[in-house]
Design goal:
heterodimer; A: 82 residues; mainly alpha; Non-ribosomal Peptide Synthetase Peptidyl Carrier Protein, Chain A; 4 helices; globular; B: Rossmann fold; 2 domains; 13% strand
Chain lengths: 82, 274
């Protein structure tokens, strides 16, 4: 089973690619959309699509759309991988 | 004598709706005030008490940033919550545009607020215009997108937002974008879409303010020789147009959008290169 830390690292990588972030050191599980330039409800949909491509799984849209921070998003992904 | 105020809160669409209404017959009996929900290059994110005291109608665009005067106006204005007009579907390669620069006074937030991932990558790689265009058009072959899944995601997002609003637009938008051009970027709608939203807002409000039924926007529309949110259009990849069967898509027009975005990016890149 993929560890949470592995999933989190890949989620952060996808966030970095989606929002053109060069330095990912400031992104962690507590990071919210408010901390990332360009991450709004609209671009969240594009992010979900990129996450689904990265992990090869459809995410449950109700949970994935409502995720409050990066950590919660990573947990949604980890659950989808089970 | 000071008129009662119609307050419109929201993003650049709300700003444009305000501008349209200020030029309509509505301004004979209501003063239109706009409050941005974002860091606007011109408007402040606060209102004087004098405006709030005269406010009788509020059109509030639903936003994750709460309307700051909700408590102050609660119970004494006729409020309608409406959704933003937006759609991701046509731009699966959209991204932040690091080559956007403010160009006041016409483009205080920059002309190309949104970018295209393949174009940005081409600019970063130091490619020339022709090579960037080729890379952008090849992007689909190298990285195809599951547009049917993106449709599901976007439909879910739009419907979820509609649930918070008095006006519901999701299904109408998803029916309409195939038969006519509705957007220039993912959140810059056409004038026709904006006028449709105004009609819905008026319909919701005219029981409270019957004079609104007399407001006509036809003349206002014809005064706009250009689309108010039509600058900085992001090109739509031909594969996306083909997948959705966009009836209005003109490949030559789209080519000019690609060229405009690439040339603008090149000018910014070259200006920053020592």
């Amino acid at each position: 089973m993929t560890s949470f830390d592995d999933v989190l690292a890949r989620v952060i990588g996808v966030i970095a690619r989606t929002f053109s972030i060069g330095d990912t050191s400031a992104i962690g599980p507590q990071t919210t959309s408010a901390h990332v330039a360009g991450w709004d409800s609209l671009s969240h949909a594009i992010l979900l699509m990129h996450l689904e491509e990265e992990f090869g799984r459809d995410l449950p849209l109700d949970r994935a759309t409502g995720a409050r921070d990066v950590g919660e998003l990573a947990r949604v992904v980890q659950d989808a991988l089970r | 004598m000071s008129l009662p105020v119609l307050l419109i809160y929201g993003n650049c669409q709300a700003d444009t709706i305000s501008a349209l209404l200020e030029q309509s017959s509505l301004s004979e009996f209501l003063e239109v005030a706009y409050l941005p929900s974002f860091d606007h290059p011109i408007h402040r994110r606060e209102l004087p008490d004098e405006i709030l005291d005269r406010c009788t109608i509020l059109w509030e665009q639903y936003d994750y940033v709460p309307f700051p005067y909700a408590r102050q106006l609660a119970g004494r204005v006729h409020a309608t919550i409406f959704p933003a007009l937006d759609l991701n579907l046509l731009w699966p390669f959209t991204c932040n545009n690091p080559y956007n620069r403010p160009e006041p006074p016409r483009y205080p937030s920059g002309r190309f607020f949104y970018g295209d991932r393949a174009i940005v990558a081409g600019l970063r790689a130091g490619l020339d215009e022709e090579a960037i265009l080729e890379r952008a058009l090849r992007a689909w072959d190298e990285h195809p997108v599951d547009l049917d899944r993106l449709l599901e995601i976007d439909r879910s997002r739009l419907r979820a937002r509609d649930m918070h609003c008095d006006i519901r637009i999701a299904d109408r938008t998803l029916e309409r974008f195939i038969i006519e051009r509705c957007f220039f970027t993912r959140d810059h709608p056409t004038l026709s879409m904006l006028v449709d939203m105004i009609d819905r807002l008026v319909e919701r409000t005219c029981a409270f303010e019957p004079r609104l039924t007399r407001v006509t926007l036809g003349g206002v529309q014809t005064r706009f020789t250009q689309e108010p949110l039509g600058d900085g259009a992001v090109p739509i990849h031909p594969a996306v147009a083909e997948h959705f069967g966009l009836a209005w898509y003109e490949p030559q027009d789209m080519r000019s959008y690609y060229t405009a975005m690439i040339r603008h990016g090149l000018s910014v890149r070259d200006a920053c290169t020592p």
